[in-house]
Design a protein that fits this description.
The chain contains nine helices and no strands. With 189 residues, it is mostly helical.
């Protein structure tokens, strides 16, 4: 097949011209892509994708050098994209693997979450003033700050705080200290 006829056949999507193009370029392009991607199976996919893109395009070539340049550049960029994407996928996989939670961790987190939920359920049953005092205390507010915020005396804050903690101890028992320690290290407000 003459070069001009071959190039015109590529532009017209002629089966014979495309068979010739495939026969002539496929193996060398696969070798080229495999060297860049370091993966012969992926190289075949890269080349196939590049040939499909050429088929779908309306590109016209004036000589064989233009076809060759187009195909090798396409394969080069697609191979680099494959390498980049493969590295990104590997990083995501490594990050995900590093975040895997052991069964022991999952049980511990479930117990902590249940204890915290129970704590807030009991706190919600406190009278409003006592509830506000407990929540502000957990946020780190001092007696004087709470008194000013609620417009009450410091002695009232202390008394209501004492009553609230007594109620919480009655309802939560020994888990109260555990929950307060958990809340002290978590930002869940």
């Amino acid at each position: 097949m003459e070069v001009e006829q071959f190039l015109e056949g590529i532009a017209r999507k002629d089966d014979k011209a495309w068979e010739e193009l495939y026969r002539y370029f496929y193996a060398p392009l696969c070798n080229y892509a495999a060297k860049i991607a370091n993966d012969s199976f992926a190289a075949e996919d890269v080349v196939q994708d590049c040939l499909v893109k050429l088929w779908r395009s309306s590109s016209r070539f004036t000589d064989m050098r233009a076809v060759t340049t187009y195909l090798y550049r396409s394969v080069y960029h697609a191979s680099l994209n494959f390498v980049r994407d493969k590295a990104a996928k590997q990083q995501v996989h490594e990050d995900w693997a590093a975040m895997q939670v052991t069964e022991e961790d999952a049980v511990r987190m479930a117990v902590e979450e249940e204890a915290i939920s129970r704590f807030y359920e009991v706190v919600s049953r406190l009278p409003e003033q006592q509830r506000d005092i407990v929540l502000q205390t957990l946020k780190g507010a001092k007696v004087k700050e709470i008194a000013e915020a609620l417009s009450i005396s410091e002695n009232t804050v202390k008394t209501q705080k004492k009553r609230a903690y007594l109620f919480l101890r009655e309802q939560l028992g020994g888990t109260l200290i555990f929950v307060v320690a958990l809340l002290g290290r978590q930002v869940i407000w």
